[in-house]
Specification:
By secondary structure, this protein is an alpha+beta fold. The chain is built from three helices and five strands; from the N terminus they run αβββαββα. The strands form two sheets. A three-stranded antiparallel sheet has the order 1-2-3. Strand 1 and strand 2 form a beta hairpin. The radius of gyration is 21 Å and the shape is elongated. 10% of the residues are buried.
């Protein structure tokens, strides 16, 4: 499946789910109440007190899922200053291959560059559409 199509499907699924939560048709809690999703789309999971990663948990025993996935991948708890970046920008896509451990400065640079790329891609799409319209109107003038 194409990566862009997969991203769109995931975004659409999240959008539908959030709409159901907003309407009160479902809860953002997991079935076993061992996880929940924040309004910003991040998933928290409950850690067993015996887990070697409990140092990463908050006072209630929950940890951000993407941080836990990265910690398990590295086989060590993450430090508070270590940042886990979602490569495809989908906050609940916590697959190993979608996560990168970065410093604060790197994360800031990545975010700025990704936002700039998104802006430029949207701009190119608009200019291509405008170009197509102008070419179409030139053809009409030439035929007259």
């Amino acid at each position: 499946m194409d990566k862009a199509l997969q991203q769109e499907k995931t975004k659409e699924r999240v959008k539908r789910y959030r709409e159901r939560v907003r309407k009160g048709l479902t809860s953002s809690w997991g079935r076993d109440r061992k996880s929940y999703i924040t309004p910003k789309g991040y998933r928290y999971v409950w850690l067993d007190p015996e887990s070697p990663f409990t140092s990463m948990a908050d006072a209630y025993g929950y940890v951000l899922e993407h941080r836990l996935v990265m910690a398990k991948q590295l086989d060590r708890p993450l430090k508070r200053y270590e940042i886990v970046h979602h490569i495809n920008k989908i906050k609940n896509d916590n697959r190993d291959e979608n996560l990168a451990l970065v410093s604060d400065g790197q994360h800031h640079q990545l975010t700025l560059l990704e936002n700039r790329i998104d802006y430029l891609e949207r701009r190119v799409t608009l200019l291509e559409a405008e170009n197509a319209l102008l070419r179409g109107s030139n053809n009409v003038v030439e035929r007259v």
